[in-house]
Amino acid sequence: MSKLKKDQIIRAFKALGQQLTSPDEALSALINTEFHHNAWFTPENTLGAVTAIGQSLNEADLNTWLNKYPDLESGGGKTVGLILAGNIPLVGVHDVLCVLASGNQALIKASTQDARLIKQVLKTLVDIEPAFADSFIFVDRLVNFDAVIATGSNNSSRYFEYYFGKVPNIIRKNRNSVAILTGNETAEQLNNLGNDIFDHFGLGCRNVSKLLVPEGYNFNFFFESIESYQPIANHHKYNNNYDYNKSIYLVNGDKHLDNGFLLLKEDKRMASPLAVLFFEYYKDDQAVNDLLLAESENIQCIVSQIKMNVPNQVVTFGQSQHPALWDYADGIDTMDFLSNL
To answer: Are 300 and 289 in contact (CB under 8 A)?
Structure first.
């Protein structure tokens, strides 16, 4: 396996970023046809995911990211098994790039929902820097590995811990994201929040699934501000979920709010069903902090304009789906883990 220097990695990743930001014919064809294999991967959503990753792979951010690991070039040589999720397009590509950047080999068990896209992206990377050709392999089953990074549900994590508990590992479970409103938001801020809620139809762990709102909050302005997202109801799978959850609430007599394409329901849980946004009232800033700290293990990121003393990543409205290279899933530094194998 070829060992690349940090400057070579940065040049290659930067060139990959440029390719993803301006997709070539082969990648564009995939972007426009993935919905035939996975109805959630619409051209608009897939292009958004591809270009967001491309934009993150800029030279300044790559330098900031990799310069945090001074021992990067002295490590590597291990085989790292990757079990990738497939809930949104290219959701596992950051793990793959981390393994390659750390000088290790990636043994990739791709999700059937997302295998074509990630294979095309890595083909593009090899075209840019052929030395990466022997740094990864796609497999149907993980065998002969030194470490594992596995992403799945709370249920699958129990199996992962059983099978991979004897090697160094990162095992990720379900997480959701939350937004905090004060009642002073502008229409533009709330419209931007719509991206955090509706991008990828709400299927990602960085999608907002719950709102924290002050006591007495009036949702009329919120609904008015997100009205531009109404076309999401034209997607048959999303609309099926909306209709199903609405019928459940109506049959059960559950109190809820409805704007025709999104249901709001008061609920203390973090994870809401598709096409539903849970909300919870809070009394003051201290109550917000207490709640977030209690739920920190279940939160991926927080969308807010408020400064808080919490361990989770906090982003501004509209930015939850644009993590930087150092915004690691679950707050676990993947590069540090890989560099110290």
So the answer is: no
